[in-house]
Amino acid sequence: MRVLLKKTRDILKLWSKENSIKDVSNIMGIPYKKLIDNYLKKFWKNDYLDKISKGRYILNKKGKSKINQDLNLLKLESLLLKLSKKRFTNEEIKKELKSKLNLELTDSSIFSKISRLRKLYEIKHRRIKEININIDNNFYEFLGLILSDGYIGKYEVVFTNKDYNLISYYKSMIKKWGQKTYQIKGESGASRLSTCSINLVALVNKFLDKKESLSDDILNGKINYQNCFLRGLYSGDGCIAISITPRKEKWRVESFISLAVFNDKLMPSLIGLLKSLGYNPVFDKNQIRMHKKEDIKKFYKEIGFIKGGKIRQSQYWRGYEKNQVLKYVANYMGSDNELKGLKKGTKEEIIKHIKTQLTRM
User: Fold this and answer.
1) Cα-Cα-Cα-Cα dihedral of 37, 40, 45, 49, to 10°?
2) For the stretch 76-97, what's the b/e string if a residue is b when 16 or more beta carbons lie within 10 angstroms of its beta carbon?
3) How many domains does the structure of the chain reveal?
4) Contact, 184 vs 120, CB < 8 A?
5) Which domain holds residue 324?
6) Same-domain status, 112 and 142
7) Among 84, 89, 273, 323, which one is least packed by beta carbons within 10 Å?
């Protein structure tokens, strides 16, 4: 339930005791007809007032309840905003709400309320704040992260991820640009980092166009900027994979670099960008993959992943750094695009051997 606007609530409170429309009009300085059309009709429709006589009304039980609910919600919102600015965890926020307001909220409810409150209270004075951003390698990595796991709103730029290292790296960039990041952790474990700045939104859209297309600065710009953009993009939605499949009495151990792409409009541009840099990408369902030895070695040397970013969705390699696995693959991939010396033994022995090698990377 949303609270009434302050002016609306002040008008409604004047009918806590019997008052005429004319009296309320004079007190609030609102023209008689405007008061009726914009306020009284809504109060009457919502059954907040009882009519005493012609032109005279008083707040009824439902109206009094509405004002009390509003006051409680205002206390809740004020406390939530205060706690979120102090970077309290959800559990700490729950304890404060219970002790001070005797309220119990779920994690998802806290998440949604704080998100809305930050837009309402923070955008007012932050959305037109000047920004000072150098268009450099870091900025292009930032663009890649936003294209992968970001959201570009009307007044805010948002990045959502579960990887602590990516979150820390993202926050350091925003801080360097003199902007504030508001962080909320959702029930899934992902952190939502919101930066309220209409100027940042405009700058990001200049390059990403609401994540609908890539600008000429990205597609035909400096090669080092293109590499940085791809580093950010692959750090968010990309991965290095090692697959182990049976082949007669031996094993086929292959590796490939993949990028998840769910926007069909972006697919041609991304494939074109990779090809212009000398890669041989192939499209497979919602993924762009690169299997060849020369592609993986080139990616390792020129692009890589943001430092510390980890593999999250893998049965065997979860928790390993993406760069760690990439380095291993680049060093041990043979001319047949398979990893060397891993064709014999059981699958478990091969996995154990690879993990041993990874710890030495």
Assistant:
1) -170
2) bbebbbebbeeebebeebbebb
3) 3
4) no
5) 230-360
6) no
7) 89
Task: Give the whole-number percent of the chain exceeding pLDDT 90.
Answer: 50
Contacts of 107 (CB under 8 A, 6+ apart): 90, 186, 187
Residues 114, 196 share a domain: no
Give me the chain's average pLDDT, please: 87
pTM (whole model) above 0.85: no
Say which CATH number the domain at 170 has: 3.10.28.10
Residues 6+ apart with CB under 8 A from 183: 87, 167, 171, 191, 192, 193, 194
Residues 9, 107 within the same domain: yes
How many degrees, rounded to 5, is the angle at CA 217 between CA 216 and CA 219? 55
pLDDT tens sequence across 305-333 = 999 999 988 888 899 999 999 999 998 88
Apex 211 CA angle, 206 and 217, nearest 5: 40
Contacts of 80 (CB under 8 A, 6+ apart): 93, 97, 110, 113, 114, 117
Q: How far apart (Å, rounded) are the C-alpha atoms in residues 54 and 352?
A: 87
Please identify, among 96, 123, 150, the residue that sits at the C-terminal boundary of a domain: 123
Rounded Cα distance between 127 and 356, Å, is 50
